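A favour, since you know our C-alpha cells better than I do. Go ahead and set the record down below.
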Amino acid sequence: MNLKKLFETQQVLRERIAYNGPDRFSKLVLALLVELGECANEHRSFKFWSTDQEPRTKKARQPYVDLEDAEFYNPMLEEYVDALHFVLELGIEKDYTPSTLNIWLVSEENITDSFLSVYEAVLEFELYSSPDNYDVLLFRFFELGLFLGFNWEQIEQAYYSKNQINHQRQDQGY
C-alpha cells in the first residue's frame, strides 16, 4: 500500500472542499466515527438480536430489471473506505502523514473488539493528538480492514474509486 499516494490524493480532495471552520477537527472526528458505525452495520456481527449475521458484501448500485444490467459493489468495503478518507484527513489536519506502516494481523480476539479498538484510537487521538497516537489510529484502522477480510489492493482500489465519486459529488454541489 502506498500511503504517501493516499495522503496526496486525499489532500487534493481536501483542497476542493476547502472548509476551514474552527470546528473542522471535531467534525472530522465525528464523521469518522459515523462511517465506522456504518461499516459495522454492514458487517452485522454485533447484532446479536438478529439471526441475519451475514456481512453485506454485494449490493446493486441501482435497481435493475436484468441481472446482466446490474452494477454491484461491496457496501461494507465502501463504508470502510469512506472511513479511510476521514482517517487520512485527520492526519493531514494535524500534519501527520507517515509514509510507512507496519501491520501485523490480528491483535484483537474478535471483530467487535477490533471495531471498538478503532473507536478508542479515534477518541484518544481527538483528546491527545500526537504522531504516536495517529500511528496507533492508522494501525488499528488498517488492522480492522484486514480483519474484515480486505487486502491492501482491494482497499486502495476501493479508496481511489470512492475518491473519484467524491470529486464528482463536489462537481454536482453535493
